[in-house]
Amino acid sequence: MSRKPRLEFPGAIYHINHRGNHQERIRTVLDMKNSLGPIPRNQRILAKPELKELFNGNEEGNLDTRNKIIQDAFKLYAYTQSDVAAFLYLSRSAISKIICKTK
Fold it and tell me: Where in the chain are the domains?
């Protein structure tokens, strides 16, 4: 019985075992995929740490450090501004201003 064909989605990342005669070709393709650009926002959700781990006691500490962590939570780990605001007991508009200022 043959395997069902794999569904392919644009921009998706697939796990491939590279064994046999085509190792070099597969490595070349993987290197090209890695150089295509940043990981899409909806795929970053898979590996994001908890907000508690990100802030690690810096919720009320140094404002520059806190603002950098807010920016990272939003841009790198795909947290929404509302999620970050609820965690820090701030308004969403305050988080938005912080993100815009730290660009």
Answer: 42-101
Q: Which are the contacts of 102, defined by CB distance < 8 A and separation ≥ 6? A: 67, 68, 70, 71
Q: Residue 100 has what DSSP assignment?
A: H
Place of tokens 């810096």: 58
How many C-beta atoms surround the C-beta of residue 69 within 10 A? 19
Question: Tokens standing for 68?
Answer: 């950098």
Neighbours of 72 (CB within 10 A): 13
Report the C-alpha gap between 49 and 25 in whole angstroms.
34
Q: Measured at the alpha carbon of residue 29, what is the angle toward residues 38 and 47, in degrees to the nearest 5?
A: 35
pLDDT in tens, 11-33: 777 665 545 555 566 566 656 55
DSSP secondary structure code for residue 5 in this structure? P
Reading the block at residue 3, the tokens are 């395997």
pTM above 0.90, yes or no: no
